[in-house]
Amino acid sequence: MEERSLRIYQEKTFFSKITNTITKLLIPTRIGINGMLISIKRNNVLKTYEAYANKNNIEDEAKKDEVTKKFEDTYALYLESIDKYVMDSIYKKVKNDTATDFEKNALSQYYAIVHLKESEYLEYKYKKQMYLLRLDYENVEEMKNKPQLVAKYKKLYASQMEGLYKGILKHYSIKLADNLLPSAKEEVYHKIFTALEEYIEEILPIKMEQEPENKVYQQILEEYQNFEKFTVGKLDQNDTIEKNMILLGLSRKLFTHSLPLVVAEQCYDKLLQDTRSLIIDTKVAKKQEKAYSLLMLLIEEYNVKLLATKIYWDKPLLRDEYKKFWTEYQTIQKIKESNYTEYIAKKQVLFLRDELTKVRKEKNKYYKIIGFYQKKLVELGAMQNLKNSYISEGTYYKRIQRKVKQVANQ
User: Fold this and answer.
1) Neighbouring residues of 185: CB distance < 8 A, sequence distance ≥ 6
2) Which residues have a Cβ under 8 Å from the Cβ of 92 and sit 6 or more positions away?
3) Same structural domain for residues 75 and 198?
4) Cα–Cα distance for residue pair 171/166, rounded to 1 Å
5) What averages of pLDDT result for each successive group of 10 residues across the chain (410 residues)?
6) Domain extent at residue 282
7) I need a surface site. Which of 21, 377, 393, 396 has the fewest CB within 10 A?
8) DSSP 141-175
9) Are residues 191 and 131 in the same domain?
10) How many domains, the chain?
């Protein structure tokens, strides 16, 4: 029995080794076939894309529809060929432990996206297309000996990816309107900022290269360069909030319709809440001051880049309050050149008072930050501590009372 079991084990091992060897030999052939199919489908979609990109020049509506349908069909077949490559080639290479780290990571990302299909179909639809396009783009980029092909493909890639990012941001914007639990809402915010970062880091440089005369890209150049500073090195919480603030600022130019003003406003409010928490939770004085400086910058961005462009207000009272704030802000701006120190102080006082008006509506939630704001106003000379004491039922009590001091010319 022992000899028989040993013989069976040896036979199974032998045939298993043969099978694995054959599979490994077949994989390169299969990759070659898939690569050839992808190349054919890619060439087809590039041909139809040229006509599709110029379809607005076609007056005949029937012909325009025909051009659109032809592009959509070739585009679908092209993506299917990349999908088949993932399943036929990368999957088997990972299974047989012959895959590179890049291929292992690619398959892991693929299954993370497929997992969304049952619960978040729209998100799955957008993300899968992004994934497949990005996978082939990395292949095309390596074709240094075919510059014309690379240039043509970049146009298709940038155009399709821009449309997909607009679609997924619109989807996230609609989700925020739902009655979500705080944890689910937090996840949507994270997805919005991640999508914005991906687009601005990966797609925007291609678009800017292709359209150097585009006025929108010229307007956002400085902000884009500021964002680039946050693409290297490890970021702390302060840096992450500042990076997301820049992303929101860029979104007001790039995704006006996909990320409506009401959603951008919610995102700014989320960053303000995060910054308030950071100020309170930070025990190191230097880091707390850094977080406070970020808060001042964020309040200015929020009021100047978003609220200043707001046309429709749900409550007329809020609109009137903002008008007063804006009038005072513009008055302070006039002294920037002549007396910068006074300008900074007055601007902080304006921002802190505006913040106090908002957070005092939820005193129990924000009592710590209220104390911090009051302390800052005392330091700036806009508020003072009045000490007094009293005796009640034979016990001595000392009370600190803060009183707003009228500042000249306000």
Assistant:
1) 176
2) 23, 27, 30
3) no
4) 9
5) 37 44 41 76 94 88 92 95 85 84 86 92 95 92 90 95 96 90 94 96 95 92 92 92 96 92 94 96 94 96 92 89 94 94 96 94 92 94 68 46 44
6) 182-304
7) 393
8) HT-TT-HHHHHHHHHHHHHHHHHHHHHHHHHHHHH
9) no
10) 2
